[in-house]
């Protein structure tokens, strides 16, 4: 059984599994691994961060997974620090952060950090990308820890960027 937490402010109805369930805002629910792996509703909500797996039970990886790409931050201009929704990463063995900085005001900088999440607590941030001060695209190996977590960004000045997380 997998434990999934609803991080959104709305209920999510999962009707495309044999025993439908509704996950209330900020509550957890248990699902069979087979249901998680076949439900389109669960997949879409896991991908956008509305849902997050916080416990995989006895799940073991049976072989390579195709890449899953999470949209962490859309292309947008930021002038303040922020954070993404949480993402499930524990089932994957490796990851890649895809950062694209398209504009940066003079004297600006951007740093990206990872905060592990256990379903109720975010743990201290670990820096993944430090002090970016120029435009361009970067692919950085992601050394995640934990089952789930979120990204935070620290901005000095004004930075326009997008960030994707590709997991395998």
Q: Can you walk me through this structure?
A:
The structure is a single chain. With 168 residues, this protein is mainly beta. The protein folds into 2 domains: 2-55; 68-167, icosahedral virus (Jelly Rolls), CATH 2.60.120.660. 8% of the residues lie in helices and 51% in strands. It has 2 helices and 14 strands, in the order E-E-E-E-H-H-E-E-E-E-E-E-E-E-E-E. Strands 7, 8, 10, 11 and 13 form a 5-stranded antiparallel sheet that branches. It has a 4-stranded antiparallel sheet with strand order 6-14-9-12, with no helix packed on it. A hairpin with an 8-residue loop joins strand 10 (109-117) and strand 11. The radius of gyration is 17 Å and the shape is elongated. The model has no long low-confidence stretch (mean pLDDT 88).
Please give the CATH architecture of the largest domain: Sandwich
Looking at CATH, the homologous superfamily of the largest domain is icosahedral virus
Order of helices and strands: EEEEHHEEEEEEEEEE
Average pLDDT taken over every residue: 88
What is the CATH first-level class name of the largest domain? Mainly Beta
| Net shape | elongated
CATH topology of the largest domain: Jelly Rolls
**Secondary structure tally: strands:** 14
Main sheet? 5 strands, antiparallel
Give the uncertain stretches in residue-range form.
Answer: none
User: What is the percentage of strand-forming residues?
Assistant: over 45%
Number of helices: 2
What helical percentage do the residues reach? under 10%
| CA(first)-CA(last) distance | 22 Å
**Number of discrete domains:** 2
Computed over alpha carbons, the radius of gyration is 17 Å
Oligomer category: single chain
Overall structural class, as computed from helix and strand content, comes to mainly beta
